[in-house]
Amino acid sequence: MSATLTPAADPATAPEATPEAPEGAPAAEPCVLTSHVALRRVIMLVNPLSGSVGPRAAEEAGAILDAYACETSIVTLDPGQFDAQIEAALDARPDVLFVLAGDGTAGSIASRAGPDGPLVAPLPGGTMNMLPKALYGTSDWKAALKTALEDGAPQSVAGGEVSDGQTTQTFYCAAIFGSPALWAPAREAIRVGKPGLAWAYARRALKRAFSGQMRFSLDGCPPRRAEALVLISPMISRAMDENTGLEAAAMNPSDAGQAFRLAAHAVLDDWRQDPAVTTRATQKVAMRARSRIPAVIDGEPVLLRHEARVRFIRKAFQALAPIPPAAEDSV
């Protein structure tokens, strides 16, 4: 069920040209027709300032797209014009909108496109690249671009919407809530070369570990307590066979020994088999803590208010990606 975009033919080996259209007839648009999708107009948004994009990305993308028979427009995002440029690209209603930018920008554009917008192909241009890896199985944006063009098919991507009464964010891969999410800022501090700040974040994470301060309720059931709650989209979940909800995994290691055991399960086999983990499908989640709730949403660390809710979105946006997508192992 893939939609294959065929590279433009080499003039030296191309078959004999077809007769020209009658005078006065409308000119045919550049188009590649397949049994599942027609890609006539392609727009690509490029943020050269994102972590793994680089200043020559627009030029390199143009060289790749020139080999395919479609009308292409490449837009370099300017810091002061992000919203206007993104809105203009969505309003143009291309057949597919490629996004080469950071995780947050790609997720925001997918959310704004929604289920009725153009096909969106988020390429790996950030740090974590969770959504691009889930769709294309690679952190190389050029390989992901070619995969989408040659093997992509339209498919609905499910997700979750997190709201704490003040902000609302959407995720398409996974969200982690609770004290383990406090390690994300330490990781980022190490990545940008700030060991002192990383140590401060790590001390805070250790202080909060195993406190069991968060309570959660799934689909209106009685509240339970957990050290961490992980919500995984059906697109990447190895445990979900159908698009019926988010996989909810409650983790309750009571001490460092159980936490190391859980980590070993995650590395060596399936972490779901650990006795400190319980999982089930859910469509609505309510969370409460005595203080603000640390979270990592599709790789982005955030700090929520002390109460938050999550709802399942069956059709969040339409992606151009292989079927099935690369899924959990790649993320």
Explain what the structure shows.
The chain has helices spanning 57-65, 82-91, 103-113, 130-136, 141-151, 183-191, 195-208, 256-268; strands at residues 32-33, 38-39, 41-46, 71-76, 96-101, 119-124, 153-163, 168-171, 174-178, 214-218, 224-226, 228-232, 246-251, 277-282, 284-288, 293-297, 300-304, 307-321. The protein is an alpha+beta fold and 331 residues long. It folds into two domains: 32-157, Rossmann fold; 161-314, Tumour Suppressor Smad4 (Sandwich), CATH 2.60.200. The strands form four sheets. The chain has a six-stranded antiparallel β-sheet. It has a six-stranded antiparallel β-sheet with strand order 14-13-12-9-16-17, with no helix packed on it. It has a four-stranded parallel β-sheet with strand order 4-3-5-6, sandwiched between helices. Helix 1 (57-65) links the parallel strand 3 (41-46) and strand 4 (71-76). The longest helix is centred in the middle third of the chain and has 14 residues, at 195-208. The radius of gyration is 22 Å and the shape is globular. The two termini are 23 Å apart. The model is unreliable at 1-22, 24-30 and 255-269 (pLDDT under 50).
